[in-house]
Design a protein that fits this description.
Shape of chain A: globular
InterPro entries (chains A, B): 6-PGluconate_DH-like_C_sf (IPR008927), NAD(P)-bd_dom_sf (IPR036291), PDH_C (IPR046825), PDH_N (IPR046826), Preph/Arog_dehydrog (IPR050812), Prephen_DH (IPR003099)
Strand content of chain A: 5-15%
Keywords (chains A, B): Oxidoreductase
Distance between the termini of chain A: 11 Å
Largest sheet of chain A: 8 strands, mixed
Number of domains of chain A: 2
Pfam family, one (chains A, B): PDH_C
GO biological process, one term (chains A, B): tyrosine biosynthetic process
Order of helices and strands of chain A: EHEHEHEHEHEEHHEHHHHHHEHE
Radius of gyration of chain A: 22 Å
CATH superfamily of the largest domain in chain A: NAD(P)-binding Rossmann-like Domain
Family (chains A, B): Belongs to the prephenate/arogenate dehydrogenase family.
CATH class of the largest domain in chain A: Alpha Beta
Oligomer: homodimer
Strand order of the largest sheet of chain A: 3-2-1-4-5-6-7-8
Structural class of chain A: alpha/beta
Amino acid sequence: MNHLGSELGSVCIIGNGLIGGSLLRDLAARGVRVFGSTHSEAAAARAVAEGFEVSSSLIDVLSRAESELALIVVAVPFDAVASVLDAIAEHSPSCGVTDVVSVKAPVLELVAQRGMRERYVGGHPMAGTAESGWAATQTGLFQGAAWVVAYDYARECAGAGPSAGQGAGGRVPDSWVRVFGQVCRMVALVGAEAVPVTARKHDETVARISHLPHVIAEALAVTGDRGGPMAQSLAAGSFAGATRVAGTRPALVGNMCETNATPLVEVLDEYIALLNDARATLAGNPPSMQALAEAGHTAHERMSARSGARRESVSPVAVSSRPVMRVHPGAPGWVAQLEQIEALGGRVEVF
Amino acid sequence: MNHLGSELGSVCIIGNGLIGGSLLRDLAARGVRVFGSTHSEAAAARAVAEGFEVSSSLIDVLSRAESELALIVVAVPFDAVASVLDAIAEHSPSCGVTDVVSVKAPVLELVAQRGMRERYVGGHPMAGTAESGWAATQTGLFQGAAWVVAYDYARECAGAGPSAGQGAGGRVPDSWVRVFGQVCRMVALVGAEAVPVTARKHDETVARISHLPHVIAEALAVTGDRGGPMAQSLAAGSFAGATRVAGTRPALVGNMCETNATPLVEVLDEYIALLNDARATLAGNPPSMQALAEAGHTAHERMSARSGARRESVSPVAVSSRPVMRVHPGAPGWVAQLEQIEALGGRVEVF
């Protein structure tokens, strides 16, 4: 048994926003050697004043990452990812790379274009607030959250399908296996749960449970507001809850949805079809909404069963509701194990 | 100056669910002589065991209401309202009547069919939880909530329009003026804020800010659930918040939406049009969602400005964000005052 990936080592975080900055705080608090860069000198100065190793020179930081063989976490908005990957290709040719961008297939494409797939493992922590920027960063942001780990490259190397990776683990390059292990260890260190998913499945899923909710909250805010002062006066908790994410910066919402436009348009079509059906039965004689109300209630019970289990725990140690599988990266059959975990929406612990 | 309506007197609550039961608790706690009825003997026994005067005999309760000239609060589901009004017509011919049903025009129609408009003032507290029934009742449920008070009859008597009620207050029957005062006093006693609205405006507004959110939450729950175990695993706080009201009993949601179907279909059409627009720009090249994201954010800021002011108060006495006007029911010009308050989404205090 080899021990590739058994060490996390240094971590280099590019970007100091809500996710990158909160990750920096958590890793530093756990004693990890962590440093990073931000595009703004003022932002770097604020982080340095709090005792963090943050610089506004991307090249300096990437050079240091190379010398320490650090794991590089790309935590910039999607439209800045290509140029950061270019800089990594030039200044950190030996480092493993992951990211925290909210779409995975488009990032994977940029990585492939630069021939970096053997050392890239996509990531996406399902955590955040309506706020953004260093000022919004906090410790513990990722506690109990799913942290998607995209393993497309391993599937392709091992051969996709039900028997994928059976005795063929050796075909996944060691460099990728090592990065996979590093990412999973980093995720565990900040209290999150590594959920293996392919990029396409991830993008379709977040279109359903993250991007679609943003679109419909924006549209609901507009529709409510058209009701004028009386709507403002009568709107109660249910309206506020349903439109909370419309408080997110519009540019952030726009970029997120636009980057995942293809899967989002598909689920938006599904969603609009459901509303059209409800509209038709409500306009009927007699009006009816029983079908949607019952389907929605059943779906809600199923969707909240897992988070419900997490919420109701009275144990001081949070109990995860995601099934867990312990995996040794690179061991025979390990990619097939990841596929089994994905089918369950489960989490992986590496050893 | 007369003092019609300066006394609340006894209150008789028909129906012992979340709203009726919580109102019973609050009024009893404030020393009001309050009694009521529920359709089930078991439910009545539970309330009696807690020290409340609740009976399962509607006729007994309505006869007592008549003898005490109590204000009758109809707190039953809409489909039971007609038969309760019939019983009131027979057993409580002298009592003022209000209700807490979530639509106002259909109730007003039932009242008009029975010739009871002169003693009926429609009501709707904008408060509730996803739970229902006596077990879910609580004290303080209405604190700071808007409590709609429908004043259509006064407008019609005084003559609608900008000069309504100028010097014509006498034309609104004394019986109605007295009930209006009683309802406003009861609302103030439980910490809620009386917001005067016409039935039609109320029904259109709640379609926007209450019933539409229910429809879209049900449809979102269904769409998310179609993502299977991975969607269950990755769904985070934003999904849970956006679908919370899908946890409400389906029959309750169905009845509420169906009773207000006409205004709801209209706002649903508005809403679907917004989604279709977003779908079109997201399917464009390049995809865009900036227009909706910006409109939604602006609308959200406006909608949350008032509730924000309430939430952020550090004063031990909650500060209302609704403009207030003090009105003496029946005084010259008082109906015109109510129209001014309605235009602001404000609240009325009676003296």
